[in-house]
Design a protein that fits this description.
Largest sheet: 8 strands, mixed
Oligomer: single chain
Number of helices: 3
Strand content: 35-45%
Helix content: 10-25%
Length: 142
């Protein structure tokens, strides 16, 4: 087996039915002061923003439409909920190769994520029911 391993937790993804209301909750209930402006990612079918914390981020994700991969999650969980956890990796292509060698199901091909760097997702059945995002560490991040 290679020496490939996951790096730091980058963020926890939280699917929400309304991103502005979710931002208000993190501001008023938890005192979060550093929340990015929401932006659309039509290629992913989502609207996204980040609640920046001292040690990581919370990614708030709202479906853009009914075709969004998040739309079914919201239908099953109308209030929203924890959607995925994201760990950094040094090389996304190595991550794909190693995940497949180790028997995991990689969902789709590597693509650009909300941080502007390459990502993949590993099927929840491979990780005790948790959808895992692997994200190539952004340049100059560590």
């Amino acid at each position: 087996m290679s020496d490939f391993k996951i790096g730091p937790l980058n963020h926890v993804g939280v699917a929400v039915p309304n991103i502005e209301q979710a931002c208000d909750i993190y501001r008023t209930l938890y005192g979060a002061t550093d929340i990015t402006t929401p932006f659309d990612m039509p290629e992913q079918g989502v609207r996204v923003c980040f609640v920046n914390l001292p040690n990581s981020q919370i990614e708030l994700i709202e479906p853009l439409n009914d075709a969004s991969p998040i739309a079914n999650f919201i239908k099953k969980n109308p209030s929203g909920g924890q959607h995925h956890v994201c760990f950094e990796v040094a090389d996304i292509n190595q991550a794909v190769t190693e995940m497949e060698k180790r028997g995991a199901t990689v969902l789709g091909k590597p693509r650009i994520g909300a941080h502007g760097t390459m990502i993949i997702f590993v099927h929840p059945r491979n990780s005790n029911g948790v959808l895992v995002e692997l994200m190539e560490t952004p340049k100059g991040h560590h």
